[in-house]
Design a protein that fits this description.
homotrimer; 153 residues; alpha+beta; 60s Ribosomal Protein L30, Chain: A; five-stranded mixed β-sheet; 3 helices; 31% helix; 24% strand
């Protein structure tokens, strides 16, 4: 088992099973040593975290949704590169947070994804990041995140 | 004529004429073997598909808007690389759908772009994808899409 | 002093001091010869331009906010590559404009960033661009922009 997946398991976390994309596209694509992933949310085959920040969802709920979303992104990246140990650096994440127009603490929500990446990859897990609020995400997930990873062969 | 444009014509489709960007920017830029395009909508010099998903626009209308947007993106990419046959893979598309806060079937709309890319490029047309709802797009287009393409010299 | 910073000063502009990211992430990351930056707004340590386009903010205010945001992006990029003269081309910017659902003149706002890049870098400052309206930005900045730069060693 890879070092990263071992670390995940030590933290009591694991990669979710794949959820097939809803359209005619891929979970991600590698060009050169960059992997661009499709945006996904916290949904797995048998669970989801829905809700709207500022309305019916706490910061803790949002943070957990972003962490689960990170696991789903990593599961998707693994399906492309085979082994999560091949990630040499996280380049960027883009977080879309389902929120009321009054809510603007996106950072505290998307940190659920950023913190896990840093916990797993240390300095190499640090990344550029953009966050924004949206009215609705697909499947009503609290967050939807896409990412760019730098990988080795 | 290129194979891809020939295939387009066989499908009864063609590339629209250019619409100049509304600001001091480009329709796209190639760095290395990647082309990053500016977001565009279904607008051409003499037509547009406006409306809001969930309010006054059917899924079919949205799908067609995304297909026309794809043609406009391809027209822009051709102006950069000269020949659409030089696209070796579609890397990613990012779809912004003009929608009410209740609408969340972005995938069914943006498929209009994804399906055409796959029809034209086969397996190499498959791509990572992110979709979101927005309150308004420039020129009120139902969708606005930007893309990243992998190209050869 | 670098040529670009000298040009900035001649224009009566200067780079703002850094504002540390609000979460566990970076202001940007360089992979190969591309620098991906985190989205930032017009906020500095002692000023900000807040407001909502279409409600309480003029096009001129929005344009200035986008120009100040550009300066902050450049300040962040300098912290990564050391010298702004190393930018060989601007690849892309993505502008998120805080706006009412009726407003759609994003281009006129984001031009504040695009125009400055072209003034500083000439033809090499021209870039692909996507713009959209959002309900709220972090810290209520009128705009929030992220960017991709092509750089040399």
């Amino acid at each position: 088992m890879s070092l990263i997946e071992n670390k995940l398991n030590t933290m009591g976390l694991s990669l979710p099973e794949h959820v097939a994309p809803a359209g005619s596209y891929l979970v991600g694509y590698q060009t050169g040593n960059l992997v661009f992933t499709s945006a996904v949310g916290p949904r797995t085959n048998d669970s989801n975290i829905t809700g709207v920040m500022g309305l019916d969802c706490s910061i803790d709920d949002g943070y957990e949704a972003a962490q689960r979303t990170c696991l789903r992104i990593l599961s998707n990246v693994k399906s492309i590169i085979g082994d999560l140990d091949k990630i040499t650096h996280v380049v960027k994440i883009f977080g879309m947070v389902q929120a009321t127009t009054d809510f603007n603490e996106y950072a505290r929500v998307v940190n659920g994804c950023s913190d896990l990446l840093v916990e797993l990859y240390g300095e190499n897990g640090k990344h550029a990041r953009s966050s924004m609020g949206v009215a609705r995400n697909p499947f009503d997930g609290v967050v939807s995140i896409d990412a760019i990873f730098e990988v080795t062969d």
